[in-house]
Structures are given as C-alpha cells and as structure tokens.
Amino acid sequence: MTTFTSNISINKPINEVYNFLADFNNHQKLMPENIQEWESTADEANFSIQNMAKLSLKVESRIPDEEIRIIPAAKPPFDLEIKWSLSSDNDHTNVLLTINADLSMMMKMLASGPLQKLADYETQSLSEILN
Predict the structure, then answer these.
(1) 24-42 pLDDT tens trace
(2) Of 57, 59, 125, 55, which is closest to residue 95 (Cα–Cα)?
(3) Domain 2-23+59-130: what homologous superfamily?
C-alpha cells in the first residue's frame, strides 16, 4: 500500500467538521475541477476523473466526531481506502486525510503525484469552506 496524507487545523468545533464530512454530498465541494459527472447521496458518490477513470465510493464506517472511512463501492482500477481522522485541540479541529492505494510500480509512477495533490486539495478546500 502507498499512503498519501494531508492535514490541516480548522477553527471550528469537531462536531461541525464531522457533520460536514459525514455527508458524502458535501464532498463534491472539496473536489478539483477535473472531477466530473458527480452524483451522490449521503453514503455514496459516483464520479469520473477527467481523461482517467470512473469511481464509485461509499462510506464504510463513521465514528462520530472521530473518523470516516470511505472505500470503493464498485471495482476500482486499484484498491483504495480514504480515511478522514478528526481530533480536537481546544476550539480547533485537527483533520488528517489519508489515502491508501494499492499501486503497482507503473501505477505508482503515474498516480502518486495526482493522489497527493488530491489529498492536499481536499484538505485545503475543507479549510476554505469551514474557516
């Protein structure tokens, strides 16, 4: 597994950050422009990455005010897990986004940069929306 992480501190209570992330409909607001054909419910999302692949993801588990785990709902090009981890520090919420991807050497060369950029983009977008 190859791991990509991005973390950020948000000046909001943990339950407010958790409630935003727990609803998959809100994740569209966190995505870069190359994410297209977004369709979602509170628990699942289907979208395509421009000139790459179609993905279908679902929330596998939620631990209130602590963690949200997202996994593929349909067979992806590679195994993938996305995890949002939250912790509270006084009136700030620390957010850690972790993307674990099972990449072959070839896929690692192609996808590592874009996956790290995606992780950084999502945490930055979350900060801009909630701060």
Answers:
(1) 999 999 999 989 999 999 9
(2) 125
(3) START domain (3.30.530.20)
